[in-house]
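Human: We require from you a protein record containing the residue sequence and its fold in token form, and nothing else.

Assistant:
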Amino acid sequence: MKRKSEKTTILFVNKNAQAFKPIQVSSGLILHWKKYIAGIIVSFAVLLGAVVYLISLQNEQVQKQLFLSNRIHYIRSTFSGVDTSAMKEKFLKIDKELSGINEFLKARGIKPVVKGGEGGESDDAVLSGDEISDFYIKYLNRLSYDFSHTPLGLPSYGRITSTFGHRENPFGGANVETHKGLDIAGPFGSPVKAMAVGTVEFAGTRGGFGNCIMLKHANGFETLYGHLSQIMVRVGQKVSIGQVIGKIGSTGRSTGPHLHYEIHKNGQKINPQSFLTLK
């Protein structure tokens, strides 16, 4: 048989002893009021947390919208009054020139500065002028590094009297010999300059080269300077591009004052004439 729930009657009386309508409350509610109050507090806390979370989400969306709005305003203000088509044309010309330099370096075994990407047309208008200029500054800095570490040009002023490849033997005997560098005739004692940043690998006498200097550069390059009258560097010394390292002479197997100049790439002798111009 179901037990009838117990009730507790609460009677409110004013100061004049006048009674109001009695209220009946479950006895269990009175006995366990702390539990009910705790439940109400927990429920309220959960509800409050949910409200705070929803407000934070809304604020995040507002911040995103504000960022996008500011970005659009920045792009518009950056390019307002600017002929973007003319700007794009200029950058395309720069790209063409830099691509030509890259091809020059690539043909000589140097890794290209920027690898070409794949995909559709790009919208340059989404980049600011500062972002574009920063890209080209980094690009040119890398090119500057590669050029300073690549042996370009002639190490001494003078006339090229013998080129790379087969030639008649200047000392007679065999009619043809293989010449693995350039001979540059010049006045005795003329300065000889380093053609790239590097380290002195050898400085001394070496067979038919007479007084000779060997420099080690980046990207697998080495340069050799022979028949010197004077050596002005020592092994292990760091040299800068254009630094005078010796003077023209006629030491070793030589018919007169001149510089014998070689370029090596990864241990192989290559034609220095490929490095005289950017063509």
User: Anything to note?
Assistant: The chain has four helices and 14 strands. Residues 115-125 have pLDDT under 50 and may be disordered. Residues 33-79 form the longest helix (47 residues).
